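Worked problem 6 (solution included).
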Amino acid sequence: MRKYMAAAGAAVVLAGLVTAAGPAAAAGSVPCKPALTALGTLPGAEVSWPQEGVRALGRGTLSVGSSRGKAVYWTGSTVHRVPVPDGSRIESELVGVNQGGLMTGWYRPYGTTDQVGFTYRAGDASVSRLPDAIRSVAGLKVNDAGRVAAAGYGDHSIRVYADGALERTLGIPEEIGPDAYVATVGGINSRGDVVASVHRSEPDTGGRVEYSHPVLWPGDGGPARVLPQAGSGGNYSWVTGIATDGTIVGSDWYGPGYEWTPWVWTAPYGAPGSSPGRLSTHPFASLEGISPSTGAAVGSARFHPEDAGINAADQAVLWPGSGPVLALPRLAAGKAASAVAVSDDDRAAGSAVNASGKTRAVVWKCASRQAYLPS
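Solution. The predicted structure is:
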């Protein structure tokens, strides 16, 4: 009975969030008060994977992610654990949420190396497993129509589910090569357009050298399009988000040098896209997410892993959609921070290290008003 009452209470709280006035109304009637907030954690020690942090933002104050290696969601700063099977002994994570409160994530059944995709709504007694098994999740993305795009790393197709049932199977364009496979699912927008990073091996190197290509599957069922690779000279073009208007964000990565360059592709995708640049304080940067409608994107300004402890820590960044990339405040001076999600109501979210050296899930409220250009 106590479990039922707790679940019902969570459902009431979330229902209030989901039925509240939308971002435009809230922005017009409530003054924006910029704040960087560290969210609550589950009991126990911090784990290295899945990293403590927010992965996606819902409506109101809803956010989803992982705490102590377990799938959680937050209402405001209050943490709520997701009831995955055998949850005390396995890793799990929420990675997406739509404006209707539908969440998606994965868990690893105890004693296996598989990762099982699922959907969940606050207050449900258990998660709803997706029909097909996924080994090593390459992406689980949900749009506001409730469609989920899912694939495992190494798969040769992406599956789109509607109401828990398989609706479409998206094959990799033959022109990339016979051995191409899905590396990451970057996103699915409200139109149902899906974007992913597809890897291929270079035959002349015996498979030792790989390249990745951004691929777009239109929501109207049209043929898949292999988009131009990012133009900065790297060998990997990662895509990490797609907005309603089709704007795609991601990064160019030159593997041997660990060189990250933020990248943006815009419709009709005839050109390789362009880079908004990096912070003056860091040699590299990446974009990890884009808002549905405002054009704002977030990510991280980076150092090479071998240099981060010598020079400075990575820093969360916000790109407003034009102009330069801007820095977001740290949770503690000199400590690392990264942003992976941004919403139409000007929230950004991700992970940050506090003064005690602990990683916390964080949300930047009124993010654009906190962002700044380092001197």
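Discussion: The first strand starts at residue 35 and ends at 38.
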